Fold:
Amino acid sequence: MQPVIITDKLTKHFGNFIAANELTFEVDKGEIFGFLGANGAGKTTAMRMLCGLLTPSSGKATIAGFDVYKETEKIKRKIGYMSQKFSLYDDLTVSENIRFYSGIYGMNNQQIRTKTAELLDELQLQSEAKTLVRELPLGWKQKLAFSVSIAHDPDIVFLDEPTGGVDPVTRRQFWDLIYHAADKGVTIFVTTHYMDEAEYCNRVSIMVDGVIAALDSPSNLKKQYATDNMEDVFYELARKAKRKAD
Amino acid sequence: MITLNNIDKTYNKGSVTALKDISFSVKGDELFGLIGPDGAGKTTLFRILTTLMLADKGEASVNGFDVVKDYKQIRNCVGYMPGKFSLYQDLTIKENLNFFAAIFGTTLEENYDLIKDIYQQIEPFKDRRAGQLSGGMKQKLGLCCALIHRPKVLFLDEPTTGVDVVSRREFWEMLKKLKRQGITILVSTAYMDEAKLCDRIALIQKGQILSIDTPANIIDSFPEKLYGIKSAKFSGVFKLLQDTRSYPGIASCFAFGDSLHATFNDSSDKRLINYLHTKGNSDVTMETITPGVEDCFIHLLKE
Amino acid sequence: MKQLIVFIKKEFLQVFRDKRSLLLLFGLPIAQIVLFGFALSNEVKNSKIVVVDYSKDAVTSQIIRKIAASKYFNIEQSMQSADQLQAAFKKGAIKMAVIFPANFALNLQHTGKASMQVIADASDPNVATTVVNYVTQIVNSYNGQLSSLSAQPLQIVPEVQMMYNPQLLGAPNFIPGVMALVLMLVCTMMTSVAIVKEKELGTMEILLVSPFKPLYIIIAKLTPNLFISIINYFIIIILSAVFLDLQVKGSLLLLTFCSILFILTSLSIGLLISIGAKTQQAAMMGSLMGMMLPTMLLTGFLFPVENMPIALQWLANFVPSRWYFIIVKQIMLKGLGIASVWKETLILLGMCVLLFTISLKKFKIRLQ
Structure:
């Protein structure tokens, strides 16, 4: 296993406020890494630094072998991103969305055609290729959004609360897709508020007040906190947070 | 306190069905949960009950008042917290509270005992603008504003969406306290694990109610035997999932937390474990488990 | 009542916290006036004029000296005949000619009254009105001096003649125009956006579910905009007096009353737009397309309504700013009283009442 995300004392402050404090961790290729934390614990800040959207104040980090200070453009080619809030264009059709996102990553027409067919096939959306995304049920949209985010075969995909509000069956189908991608070697970096989803991850980190308060596999964490579910682990750690406001 | 009879609601001139033949009632002092994913019709139902929308068909009443005829009386006695954060982002906590108090013809002091516990948690930030609060604090402020006139019935539309576990637990604690003060609460959520915190729940999907009962009864009515399947080696979950699904006797199999939840077509079949071992999964164990509300929901969805 | 006051207070808080909108609200009229003002005063300063003096007596030379001393005029003395004048006007070499007939001082002493001719090139109506105004002012002040010196009342009457465009048609009497435009835009846009913002935010749901009366919501939303618009109105009046030397000739009270009426009409339109619009963008577009264009085109301050096709003239009658524009012109520029604007005022009042009633009726007590 070689790590695709390496951070060393990665820190970001805004004025006097330390949003993320000396984050040090590694994520291996093909790993599903759960990135948990209370609201305002610094998750978003950390994720933005890793995506190359925010320059760190100090510390080191490499993403897919590229430096977060100097090689952000190269990083962007190697990562995918999906969030619950923004993912697809409602007023474009399914295939137009796939074409658009693939086009952004510089795929040629031939590649785009192959990719579109492949994605529609995998999601069993062939009959809906010409449907406006607006008209799809939420669950399908989420699945499509995830597939589009890995259409350019990134090394790492960042998922920001991808399953909010979807029904339990769709949520599981969504995780099937995630497992499938991880199986093919894509590293998954995911945030979620569903604690049962934390159990689907190989390892989880829990951020409290800008620092990583715990980082281990779910089973080890549960053992350490003598409980049978991740929610208790999270609650124990996060309720000690002093930083109540964002 | 709340009754609904055969409520139908469609949008876009009937082309989109939001609610179909919804009937149920909520008793006084009850904490009633409406559990379902986005787009199930939860918000529409809330809007009909809070007199913001008219149903196409059917009748509904809140606190004895008809939602169509007596909408003015209803508006006096209900508290409502819509799904989106709906307070003035550019006003401070204090200003928001005073504003909503005045709108309902009361003052912050008058019903202070009711919101005291909640308000004290956000009081240190009372001069901060609402737009700069964290999710959990916004939610508490929203609850204070909805309670300020001591409503008889409280409608909370997805109050815990996007809020972390700690804030969610605190929030449900507050709801229990309010219930003890005699307030009837109708709350909706997309988090299935919150169902067990309600007195009674309605599972709702695509505008239809799948089941209404206490969480315990709903779990008891799960008709099949549920098995939890685990493998010692974590990284093989996807393979385990696929292999289990490929086994002929399996009716359904989903990943559930740290194990797979599976049901069989006929009776349980110990040969599954051998099958999984031959497929290359190591140390597979299988045991009977009690289903959760989420298992029930999945089961009801298939029907 | 207390509820209403709290609501209005909240509206003001929010308005004053939104620095960007405030800048736009007050910056817009100021920028308009200052821009127009500079463009105009540059043109009017040092206007070339001709003075033809057939009398050459003490009185005329005194007046001429005063005109020459003014910074607004440059007297060209080369021309003596009417033909030369005509040619100079045609070439655009001069803006105005002042002609004193023979025996000017004699007439004044014997009859107590003397007329002088003032001819202006009205192809640019603004400049024409301005230069004529300056000359009239100079003569008037001279009249005042005369009266204080002599026992009998003496009066010099300037007979003004506009060349090329005698009715000053199409005069971009831009102050009335700017007033109509700014007030209409600010009122309509701010009101519609303010209400739609509550819808977008979701607070409208809470307000509707509260026992707070819908009428109160409307009143509370309108009050800050009414207030801001009245301030804007006074800013325009003061700026145009300071920068453009354009004072309100008629009754300021009457003009203010009519302006408030117009403001209320515009607020009602904003209210109507907000009822239909779902997003702030839609409200903004509705206000711009629905109000700004008709105000610019059909009010008469860019193009005279009289010259438009019948259908458009007919349509223009439904644009409130058209009537307001007439009122402002009559009161502010011509100094006329209520007698000459009562009809327009009544029409505006009617529109205001009608629009407000419709929007009150249409204001939704539910979502959907």
